[in-house]
From TrEMBL:
Name of the protein described by the UniProt record: 7-cyano-7-deazaguanine synthase
InterPro entries reported for this sequence: QatC, Rossmann-like_a/b/a_fold
Source organism (scientific name): Variovorax paradoxus
Amino acid sequence: MTKIFCAPKDQIPEARHADTTYFSMYAHDGLPDVSTVGTSLIDEVKKAGLVPSAASWDFLTLALAVNAADHAVERSLSADGWTRTIELEVALYEPAPFGRLTIEIEQALRFLTGDFWRLRFVEGGYPPPISKHPVAYDADCVSLLSGGLDSLIGALDLTAQRRRPIFVSHIAKGDSETQVLYAKTFGGGERHLQWNQNIWLKPQREGEGSTRGRSIVFFAFAALAADSHARASEASSVEVFVPENGLISLNVPLTVGRVGSLSTKTTHPVFMQRLQTLWASLGIPATLRLPYAAKTKGEMMADCLDPDRLKGLAGMSTSCGRFSVYGLRHCGRCVPCMVRRSAFLRSRISDTTAVYVYPDLKAAQPDKGANDVAAVATAVVKVEDEGVRAFTAGQFVFAESSHRAVFEGVVERGLQELGVLLRSHHVL
């Protein structure tokens, strides 16, 4: 079991244990052996004019602590090389409501990251920031804006429907300029919140690269924005739109061996339901909306309510799972890249992506690591030969029968789109 302690700098003990990784939250401490997370966020929340409640602020604190722990604890050191047991102690401003939900939060994190979590909430966390100049945004919802193709389509559709979202972005290398461009293009530049979790490990090291918990911070940013806006506008709840296609959300393993690092649960229906339940229990007035849960990426592109602007902006979006590895270029052969490329084919929109490092999928066999092209081809053939239920067997037991049929449909159609792509490259 690995121990993580996250608290304000004045809560970090002078006598620190060798078996514990310490994080100073929201501020630098100047100590060479204490890591930091969330630095600058207090000032940025004040600058944005937000007035969050203790519940949404403490949820952000928890999310930052979870991601800090996820980043600090390397999976390769665990018994099976993947599953970790993480003991996380985090200081909150009002820990009691979270303490009553400890089991539920641990279960949600277990599903999200694949690890065993042991949580302890203590007093001493920073209070919610108080802005000297609170802002009442001219908005009616919140929407995640990552810089990806799905979030672009989500923003285009909301704007076409005359919705006025507060755009919330999690800064990622290579995406920040695109996020700003998109928000301004939709007339939402003044309604754009763009924040970073700023995790710095000490002594300096890369940390765990799988980061399955990173999405919870993105959702926490959205919850903070929704909560503050609800308080400012006296709304009972604010919709939080999560633009993600159903194939990627469900993320059914392509082969029996593709679990762990190859199976993320970022927007999976189970995690979304658990997150919504936690928000409701904590009194956070945010309602998750997944408008594309029953659509493939190709269907999202084909049905976009603003096709002209989509054609002009789609090529600038980022989809690659290894974008930073390839110098801020799309590799072209990872699963997200292939889903992207198949969506362009399905929608008959010209793919104006600047470059794919591996444009020819037939010749794009990796020297080492996972062979995504072969895995997708295997999945496509299995569905064609045996039917989608043979491929998704056991994956949708959490859902009622009517929802299972919807999930099976989006998976089947998504793999059909990928099959068209692979055949165009003579892989099949």
